[in-house]
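Researcher: Here's the sequence for the chain we discussed earlier.
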Amino acid sequence: MANNEFDLPDDFDDYDDGAITQVRRAHKAAVKRLKELESELQGYRTESRKRTVADVLTSRGYNPKIAELIPGDITNEAEVVSWLDEKADVFQPMTVAADSDGAQNEQMGNQPEVNIPPGYQQFNDVVNAGQAPMGDESQLMAMIAAAKNPDELNKILFGNAAGPPAY
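Model: Thanks. This is the structure I predict for it:
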């Protein structure tokens, strides 16, 4: 058996510069910074997903509220498009009129525009500009019979001397 003696100084017990403490502090700070960066990265990924999904939905004409129904594991544009194609029978694209009242149509629940007959507008003009008849039918007939010229008759019936508007 070999006889080896090593002469190691025992002065390490007296020498303490806090190196282990410094390493622990540095490690703790690095772990804390790593957690901050991971949470920031997760926030960026979430925002990027929301933006991508919203852009795809609006570009394809779907209501942006559908984004809440899309699973969280679908993150990129191609996956969102394939998911929408797969679920196309469930969701319907929004139809927005391409006129200046687009915002108004959207507020009104995208109701279809109704063609108003020409007599309806004339009736509305008379009702809005005219006055409600006072009294009963016999008084109104007496006023009509007492009219001496067409201007007075127009004033009674239409509220102005010019009569009904001509279209």
